[in-house]
Amino acid sequence: MKRFILFLSLIIFFYQDRLFAQQTIYDTLTINNLDRDMIVYVPATYNASTPVPLVFNFHGYTSNAFQQMFYGDFRAIADTANFILVHPNGTLDNTNTTHWNVGFGGSTVDDVSYIDQLIDSLLLDYAIDTQRIYATGMSNGGYFSYRLACELSERITAMASVTGSMTPVTQFGCATSHPMPVMQIHGTADGVVPYAGDTWTLAVEQVVDL
To answer: What's the CA gap between 51 and 82, in Å, rounded?
Structure first.
C-alpha cells in the first residue's frame, strides 16, 4: 500500500501541470431563439474559491471569436493576471457578414441582451468578481464595447476600444450608472474608421470627451 501511495504521489508531482492546466472551452448559449457561440479561456491560476475578473474580447466586422482569440491574444495575460477571458461570436448581418449590432447596417439583433444573459450564465459556472467585468474589442468590437459601457454600465466596470468609436445611435442611448473608465487606441490615418468622424461615426476625440 505504501508503495502504491508513493507511486501515485510521483504521478501527481510529474503531471500536476496537466492536472491544473488552462482550459479553452467552446460553448453555445441560446438567447432569443438564437444559438450564440463563444470561446471561454480559463487560466491555470483560476481557483473556484476566489472570485476573479472577467474580460470580454470582441472581434471586428467580418471576423469571429476564434480569429480574435489569436489576433488580440490576451491568454498569456490572463495566465499571469488571473482572469477569465471570453471571446463571443457575433451574428450574420443582411450581407451575411459577422457583426455586432451597434446601430448601423439595419441589424435587429439584441447583442446587449446576449451579453447580459451570458454574464448571468458565466456567474453560474465560475467565481467572478462582479465589480471587475471589462469589455474590449477591435473595430466593430470596439464600437460594441462602447455600447455595452453605455447600456449595460451596471455590469461593465471599464472598457477599451482599438480602432473603434461610437455611433450616433449609441451616443443617443448612452446613460451610464457610474463614471466609466475608457481607453481608446486609434490612429489619425485610419482609413476605415475615420479619426475625425463621419455621419455614421463620432470623431474619436469627441467620444473620449463625452
So the answer is: 10
